[in-house]
Specification:
The chain has 166 residues and is of the alpha/beta class. It has one domain: Rossmann fold (3-Layer(aba) Sandwich). It has a five-stranded parallel sheet, with helices on both faces. The longest helix is centred in the last third of the chain and has 16 residues. The radius of gyration is 15 Å and the shape is globular. It starts with a strand and ends in a 6-residue tail after the last helix.
Amino acid sequence: MIPLIAFVGAKVSGGNLRLEVVKFIIKTLEEMGCEVPSQHNGSENPVETYVSVVGPEAKTDHNSFRDQDYIWIDKCNLAVYEISERSHGVGAEFEHTRLKSRMGLPETPVLCLFDVNHDRALLSPMINGVSQAETNIWIREYADLDNIKNILADFMIHFFGRVIYG
């Protein structure tokens, strides 16, 4: 069985109003058998968590975060983005994931989640511009944590034929 590596992206700079949601996504993916290297995106202290994952010699400047995230994205075989809040960083990560196949890397299933109370018209043009032909990209709204868990389970079954709770 292929190990599942999930990149989880969310707004971190300027405060993450969806931190509890992102923590839940990471925890649920781990329960489903995924490794989630991007733990820092669901942390109260992203820099401290990043260093604990990468190692004490890790550089913590903006370029190092970006470069490490791209390394993780290149290695992941699924990605989940919480997109209720606009973020240039999440947009760049999403686009990097979306274009992996053009860089000679395997196409990656992507799940973008946004709060049902968020107006879809306010989502980034990068998200609203996803075409019907990009069947590896799911954009789903959620109402609560149970709803997120069900969406994640459907996503895992659709793309990987399984949900494993460890």
